[in-house]
Design goal:
Layout (H helix, E strand, L loop, with lengths): L6 H13 L22 E6 L3 H18 L2 E6 L4 H10 L6 E4 L2 H9 L3 E2 L3 H10 L2 H6 L1 E2 L2 E2 L2 E7 L2 E4 L1 H6 L8 H13 L3 E3 L6 H16 L1 H8 L8 H14 L8 H6 L3 H9 L5 E5 L3 H10 L8 E4 L11 E10 L5 H11 L2 H10 L17 H13 L4 E2 L1 H4 L2 H4 L5 H11 L4 H17 L1
Parallel strand pairs: 1-2, 1-3, 9-10, 12-13
Antiparallel strand pairs: 3-12, 4-12, 5-6, 7-12, 8-10, 8-11
Helix pairs in contact: 2-16, 9-10, 9-11, 9-20, 11-21, 13-14, 20-21
Length: about 450
């Protein structure tokens, strides 16, 4: 991955870690003050990350260890964070810190009384260095529990420049143009899209981008809060728009059946792997990290993206997501866990993963030079510049039973819709029934 103008930043970070005392040009950093005050302690962190994401987050944890002396242990939970963490708490083996990937799960944890409010140090950093929207999504009933360390820009369609060039296609500006371009790519010998339908969250992201652009932000917010029913005509219309893609065998690599047996990493491989099967894959900015780390692609040259296009004359959507760090009350080392959160709130911590790639930070103080390529820098700037106009992933705002559980709720119902997209109205009714049950619970 290309790294420009990073020498000063890298040497600064290395010096700070080596001395364990100050950030370059700044005062003392929290997280134990760099005096190895946490030596002999271990912080247990649970999160969904595996593969390259887990490997890169471990670099951040190692930097925390170098600064504070605290050891760390990462536990991968899989997608069902709520279930796994709940069972660990009940078994008396709660982690100290959880990286929560859904607002709805954070809300659930807080209302169960599992979380410690963030320390004054972490709160002041978030207030100063993050857009208010991130504080809003980290809070429950006015109390701030979550620090958004890793953000996602979920309005990016990634493509192989070679595939689009060979088909004579330019990045489209509208959804209809994108489907038309997809047919041109298909005519040239590759399927248009790889769809990771085995992972239901990829399908919710497809729906959310279409819905935000087509129905508008007010209805998006209402649906996210379940103040608007899923049987609303705007939902049925968006499902119909998504169904145009799902039912078109020329557009999806391997058709619907293969899409349902393709997980997210495999969908990226179908575009950027050694044997390409498709020209494009929709998902967040983190596609670039997988394309680079797993398949050696140079971002901006071998892999690029265009913004998710506007639908039916609407505004192009900007959907985001993120992983919020929270501290559990029942963790054996919650005090050291809070020190980890104070460290994660700093641009120094964000710079470690930014350098490794496949990462965006909502921290406004992070030097853009920390990112290793111009494409990631542009994506990060887009997210920061969006400020409070960005809309958080809708399924992540829902109760986990509806928006964040494998084989259930919205994930399963959209997988069923991918399998048979012929009845948008019927799917909307099933979504409403599942949502009503989850929100009441």
């Amino acid at each position: 991955m290309m790294r420009r103008r990073t020498t000063l930043l890298t040497s600064c970070t290395a010096l700070a870690l080596a001395l364990g005392a100050t950030a370059c040009g700044g005062g003392p950093v929290s997280a134990g003050g760099g005096d190895k005050a946490l030596s002999g302690q271990t912080v247990t962190v649970a999160g969904v990350w595996t593969g390259s994401e887990q490997k890169n987050f471990q670099k951040v944890l190692d930097a925390f260890t170098a600064k504070t002396g605290a050891k760390t242990q990462f536990i991968s939970t899989g997608d069902n964070v709520s279930t796994v963490v709940g069972s660990k708490i009940e078994g008396g083996n709660a982690p100290d810190v959880v990286m929560v990937p859904q607002v709805g799960v954070l809300d659930q944890f807080a209302k169960k009384g599992w979380l410690k409010p963030l320390s004054p140090t972490a709160q002041s950093t978030i207030t100063a260095d993050y857009a208010p929207v991130w504080k809003k999504y980290g809070s429950v009933d006015g109390t701030l529990y979550g620090l958004y360390f890793k953000a996602a820009h979920k309005s990016t369609v990634w493509y192989s420049p070679d595939a689009l060039s060979q088909a004579g296609v330019k990045p489209p500006k509208t959804y209809d143009e994108m489907l038309k371009a997809g047919h041109t790519v298909s005519d040239s010998g590759l399927a248009a899209f790889a769809v990771g339908g085995e992972d239901g969250w990829t399908l919710t992201d497809w729906f959310e981008n279409i819905y935000l652009s087509q129905a508008g932000p007010e209805k998006y917010d209402a649906l996210a809060a379940h103040k608007l029913k899923w049987t609303d005509a705007s939902v049925v219309k968006a499902l119909g728009t998504l169904g145009k893609l799902f039912k078109d065998k020329q557009l999806i690599a391997g058709g619907q059946k293969e899409a349902l047996n393709t997980d997210f990493p495999s969908s990226v491989e179908k575009v950027f792997g050694p044997k390409p099967e498709a020209g494009m894959v929709y998902e967040g900015d983190f596609v670039g990290g997988v394309a680079h780390d797993q398949f050696g692609k140079t971002i901006g040259k071998d892999a690029n993206f265009f913004p998710f296009p506007a639908v039916d004359g609407g505004t192009a959507p900007v959907v985001s997501g993120g992983d919020a760090a929270v501290v559990l009350k029942d963790g054996k080392n919650a005090t050291a866990g809070m020190k980890l959160l104070e460290y994660l709130a700093t641009p120094e911590a964000a710079a470690v993963w930014a350098k490794a790639g496949g990462f965006l930070s909502p921290n406004k103080k992070l030097d853009p030079a920390s990112y290793g390529d111009d494409v990631t820098r542009a994506t990060a700037k887009s997210l920061i510049d969006a400020g409070d106009s960005v809309r958080f992933d809708m399924s992540d705002q829902a109760p986990a039973a509806f928006g964040g559980t494998k084989g259930a709720g919205e994930w399963k119902l959209l997988q069923d819709f991918l399998r048979d997209p012929s009845d948008p109205k019927g799917t909307a009714a099933k979504l409403e029934a599942a949502a009503a049950k989850a929100y009441q619970g």
